[in-house]
Amino acid sequence: MTSSLPQQARDAFSRFVTTEFTTIGAKRQPITWPVTPYYSDGEPTVDISTGLGYPKKADDAKRNPRVSLLFSDPTGSGMEGAGQVLVQGIADVDDSNLAANRERYWRESTVKLPATKKMHPPKPMRAMIGWYYTRIYVLVRPERVFVWPGPDASAEPEVHDCHLEEVRSGHTEEPTAEHGTPTGGPAAWDDRVDELGRDYETAAITWLAPDGFPLSVRLPIRVESSAKAIHLGAEPAGLPLIEGRACLTVHRHAPDFTWQNNFQVRGDLERRADGWRLVPRRLVGGFEVPKGFLGRNAEFVKRMVPYYRTARKRIKEPTAAE
């Protein structure tokens, strides 16, 4: 149960509008996206959902149930200035009753994000975009929780787990999990990365721990175009940085979640004489909700056909991965 966790952690679970959710891809690549968390105080799990038309997060979690949730952006939560909370947990994918999940999503999302209710189409029209409203839930049972008292992750966190010294030392008594080899090859770079350096002072950086769980934390970043690298401006206390595949995620949203944007850089985390850096290997844009009615609907129309096809395939072949 989560009732024994500090109030700061439980408040983050229930009040944060977004959490950075990490799954591990088939090639041992950590993949981090912002999602909305759902939690009731004292419940055993923190839950997130994904649309039937874009089920990769759920499929990855089913393939490898070691996941993480980072609560590092308190926008809209009323907890501005709150510290960071990282949950490493075991995922259970709930896709057994899609009709019930669809009703649950409508009920919970409109309670947590009331300003978004006016953005939804009437119920008959919602059936036409079932790829979005029909939901797969991922229930995350916390195994280890890190709590930083403030947003600065270079301060020592409070760790709630029986393997405290193993985490701090970067070693574990359990068998070391296989890590994916560095991606290698030329750096991926375009104007989006330069914009990232101008528009974002911090980002969520995720890599794999020796035990195979994702580790994720928000750190200051600096983009160096000439070197085609993104430098980490600090090292997190209590978490062992490890060279290898990593994911850097930036996102923003309105306090009432009426718009959101996000962007992801996957690459290789490297230690250099001047500190740690990420060499980008792949740039990935996420599912965004632009500002304004026209932009919002254009985004849905753009994605409708491929997501509809994926949803249809999922219904016919429930175990098919995206």
Word description of this protein:
The chain is an alpha+beta fold. It has a single domain, classed as Electron Transport, Fmn-binding Protein, Chain A (Pnp Oxidase, Chain A), CATH 2.30.110.10. The protein has eight helices and 13 strands. Strands 1, 2, 3, 4, 5, 6 and 7 form a seven-stranded antiparallel sheet that branches. The longest helix has 24 residues.
Determine the oligomeric state from the structure. single chain
Shape: globular
Q: Fraction of residues in helices?
A: 10-25%
CATH topology: Pnp Oxidase, Chain A
Mean pLDDT over all positions:
87
Ends apart, CA distance between termini = 32 Å
Estimated share of beta-strand residues: 25-35%
Under CATH at level 1, the class stands as Mainly Beta
Uncertain runs with pLDDT below 50, 5 residues or more? 162-172
Cα gyration radius (Å):
19 Å
Second CATH tier, the architecture: Roll
What does the main sheet amount to?
7 strands, antiparallel
The total domain count is 1
CATH superfamily: Electron Transport, Fmn-binding Protein, Chain A
Task: Explain briefly what this protein structure is.
The chain has 322 residues and is α+β, with helices and mostly antiparallel strands.
Helix-strand blueprint:
Layout: H1 7-15, E1 19-24, E2 30-35, E3 46-51, H2 56-63, E4 66-71, E5 85-94, H3 98-112, H4 123-126, H5 130-133, E6 135-147, E7 158-160, H6 164-169, H7 191-199, E8 202-208, E9 214-224, E10 229-232, E11 244-253, E12 260-272, E13 275-285, H8 293-316
Antiparallel strand pairs: 1-2, 1-4, 3-6, 4-5, 5-6, 6-7, 8-9, 8-11, 9-10, 10-13, 11-12, 12-13
